[in-house]
Write a structure and sequence with these properties.
CATH class of the domain at 101-181: Mainly Beta
Radius of gyration: 40 Å
Strand order of the largest sheet: 4-3-2-1-5
Structural class: alpha+beta
Number of strands: 5
Oligomer: single chain
Number of helices: 4
Shape: elongated
CATH architecture of the domain at 101-181: Roll
Largest sheet: 5 strands, antiparallel
Order of helices and strands: HHEEEEEHH
CATH topology of the domain at 101-181: SH3 type barrels
Helix content: 40-55%
Distance between the termini: 152 Å
């Protein structure tokens, strides 16, 4: 006489029950939390009622399920953070650093190289006029050329704007001093008259 196991209906599984042999991973052979839950429910559904699953084993599986779910949530949080850094924070940091290059003399790879371009025009030199972010990378405007950051091959010295400003201030001070100081000839005549008196 053959006996067939008694299977009860689970309220969590519908007509299309999942066979543990047919569970396929959706992400390159890695089972996710949904797959793990389906396996656990299938095990509970088809367990032998005369020797049910050990409660310790059931608790261990639930703990594993909970840990898996937390790891996946953490992974999603890291993905969101990386996306935020790459799309918002990093471009603004790069733009800020690149803006310090404005006014600097640089040598760069000619962005308009063609087959007939002479060899002596492969590397050009110029002064950076402005900076923009193009396709997520800082791009320098040098004359009429748009030069990506990684095509700068040599940096010249920063123009000393402080020295130029200081020179202008000193020139203006000299002009002011001249307007307030009387001429040397008038000083000598008035000084000689004062001594003789």
């Amino acid at each position: 006489m053959s006996t067939s196991p008694i299977y009860g209906q689970s309220p969590f599984i519908g007509e299309n029950t999942v066979n543990t042999q047919n569970i396929a991973a959706k992400d390159n052979g890695i089972l996710g939390k949904d797959d793990f839950l389906k396996i656990l429910i299938t095990e509970l559904k088809y367990q032998d009622p005369l020797s049910p699953m050990d409660s310790k084993e059931s608790i261990a599986q639930m703990a594993s399920f909970s840990a898996l779910e937390q790891m996946q949530n953490l992974n999603k949080s890291f993905d969101n953070m990386a996306t935020s850094i790459n799309n918002q924070l990093l471009p603004s940091i790069l733009l800020q650093q690149a803006s310090s290059m404005i006014g600097r003399e640089v040598a760069y790879i000619n962005p308009n190289i063609k087959e007939d371009t002479p060899e002596n025009e492969y590397i050009l030199a110029g002064q950076i006029n402005s900076v923009m972010v193009f396709e997520g990378r800082p791009t320098f405007i040098i004359g009429n050329d748009k030069v990506p950051f990684d095509e700068i091959v040599e940096l010249g010295q920063m123009p000393d704007t402080n020295q130029a400003a200081l020179s202008k201030i000193l020139e203006k001070l000299d002009e002011l001093l001249k307007t307030f100081q009387p001429d040397d000839d008038s000083n000598n005549e008035s000084g000689a008259g004062d001594l003789g008196a």
